[in-house]
Amino acid sequence: MFVGVGGTASALVYNGQGNDIKRPLQVDAPENPIPHGFNSAEDFQQFGSLLRSELPEGTQPLFQGSAVTGRSYSTGKPFDVGRQSDFDLALAGPDLFGKAKALNLKTKDGTRIGPLSAKNLEDLGLSVLQSQLSGLAGRPVEFMLFDSIESALKRPSIWVP
């Protein structure tokens, strides 16, 4: 189970202000390039390897939410303080997003779908992966789909290595 906050890793951090994907806000930044909830760069790498190995080709995973910002968007509470925080993962790419739209899943702003329900996950073939990642991390993992990496990077994000 991953419970701490990591140090440095080969992760790209974006500020969510729509910055150019070729110019990350921070690279290997000592502040916190590893999402909250991991003890080490190795734990983050292990999680990322499992995630990437099971995603459709062309789908880019990104950490978002409180694991990136350190605070809950809705309550402002710090990550893992007084509760167990989840991992919010953006899955960006036209193929998975298109499959979800073909299933008539509702989009938000035309660029985002989710968080995905258990039925959505099953229909999209992501339920086993979600379960594996939740087990590995020892915390809930939620998926949101984005039509493109550019849309996803409008929110604070950490690139999954």
Percentage beta strand: 15-25%
- Which series of helices and strands comes N to C? EEHEHEHEHHEHE
Q: Please give the count of helices.
A: 6
Mean pLDDT score: 84
Helix content: 25-40%
Supply Rg: 15 Å
User: Can you tell me the overall shape?
Assistant: globular
Largest sheet: 7 strands, mixed
Order of neighbouring strands in the sheet with most strands: 2-1-7-3-4-6-5
Straight-line distance between termini: 19 Å
Structural class, from helix and strand content? Answer: alpha+beta
What is the number of strand segments? 7
**Contiguous runs where pLDDT drops below 50 for at least 5 residues:** 1-11, 18-32
What does this structure look like?
The chain is of the alpha+beta class. The chain has one domain. Helices cover 30% and strands 18% of the residues. The protein has six helices and seven strands. The protein has helices spanning 41-54, 66-69, 94-102, 118-124, 127-137, 149-152; strands at residues 12-15, 26-27, 60-64, 87-92, 112-113, 141-146, 156-159. It has a seven-stranded mixed β-sheet with strand order 2-1-7-3-4-6-5. Helix 1 packs antiparallel against helix 5 (127-137). The model is unreliable at 1-11 and 18-32 (pLDDT under 50).
